[in-house]
Amino acid sequence: MFADDILAGLFSADGRANPYPYYRRLHALGPAAQVTPGRVGPFGAVVHGYAAVDRVLRDHATFLVSDSHHLDRGGQGWREHPTLTTLMTTIMFTNAPDHGRMRKLFHQVLTARRVTQLEPSIARIIDNLMDRMAKKAADDVEVDFIADFAYLMPTSVVGALLGIPDSDLDWFRPRVQQIVDYLDQTAKSAEVLAATDAVTREILAYYEEMIASRRAHPRDDLVSTLVQVLDAEDHRLSLPEVIANLVLMFNAGFVTTINMLGNGLPLLLERPTLAEGILSDPDLLTTCVDEIIRYDASLQYISRWVARDAEIEGVPVPAGSMVLVLLGAANRDPLRYPDPDAFDVYRPDVQSISFGAGPHYCLGAALARAEGRLAFPRLLRRFPKLAIGAAERNDQLLLRGYRVLPVTLS
Which residue in 296, 255, 21 sits closest to 155, CA to CA? Predict the structure, then answer.
């Protein structure tokens, strides 16, 4: 079977429901393969082997993110949309030198120490959400783990990190979700973009007002720290760049953590012995979270465009072509992980590529891991008879997770 046919299946309803059989077929072709542009998206090659994906992501001179300069080659009409101009101003969609200039500041304020200091707040958020679940689930009524916990927890955590009041989160969540829906490959219609532009304008105005407030009245939150560092040093960041990256930070810290929690809970409940083990063994809990992130990644793929003629494991990729980078497949590469389709928390040297690699490695990786380490044992300890009902996947490949995950608590 050629890579074109495999990718067509991967992006079908069957592949979106379960991409892993398609990844196995791709691995049989080697770590990368040539594809026909236009057959499944604009891609001229797909890379899916772990080592090959790692090399592509680290080679930021050859394989670049689709930045504003790249989009301009297709015309500048995209600049009329605040959603697109905002995204193209973030560290996720910029290359050197702008990427490093912006990342330096955000790396300086989003530190491991700040994540550690946030852990008591994360624990309180988890406990409060479990109290709400317990009240809602009286008399063995099912609750939706996604809507009643996984959706609320990361938005509350990011809100606490940035300093967004709890009273504003109900306003924020649907607007952030609108941007997430647009980013899904199947949702890029003119109508969806127009709706996303409207909420993007509202979010930009919110952050602009918030930054002005923190500049006048600093608080103990990341936005205040960001403003202080920005004002104290010559980072040469503009206000639109700061605001755009705050939009990104909320979005990136929102949906991937939802899916990590939703994808991980069934894996634990299917293994009662493991669930009991992580309650008493912090080391096992850490490796368990890492294995969840490897086994069923929240973010399944990204893309790169080729700045100069190159090869990926013998596959030619001419300058100007696009490469599909399958993170989810790299995490299941049999050359990197023996028996990769098994969920094994005792697997040695688990280093998933779910958070990327190289200069675009996810700044929020430590926060996501901390949320998993704190949430799973608390849930299992509070609700030892937690059971899952008829779950529904979200019918996405890019951001893999559950739309509905009903649970009973006792």
Answer: 255
Is the confidence at residue 132, as pLDDT, over 90?
yes
CATH superfamily of 3-408: Cytochrome P450 (1.10.630.10)
pTM over 0.85: yes
Strand, coil or helix: 342: coil
Q: What's the mean pLDDT in 27-36?
A: 97
Which residues lie closer than 8 Å to 273 by C-beta, 6 or more apart? none
- Residue 250 is predicted with a pLDDT of 86
Amino acid at 81: H
Query: How many CA atoms within 13 Å lie on the side-chain side of 100?
Result: 5
CA separation for the pair 80, 187 (Å, rounded): 19
Q: Is the pLDDT of residue 188 over 80?
A: no
Domain spans of the chain?
3-408
With H, G, I as helix, E, B as strand and everything else as coil, classify residue 297.
Answer: coil
Query: 202-210: long-range contacts at Cβ-Cβ below 8 A with a sequence spacing of 24 or more?
Result: 202/175, 203/172, 203/175, 203/176, 203/247, 204/82, 204/86, 204/243, 204/247, 206/168, 206/172, 207/243, 207/246, 207/247, 208/239, 208/243, 210/163, 210/164
SS3 state at 356: coil
Across the strands, what pairs with 64?
Answer: 305
Q: What is the DSSP string of 21-67?
A: HHHHHHHTT-SEEE--TTTSTTEEEEE-SHHHHHHHHH-TTTEE---
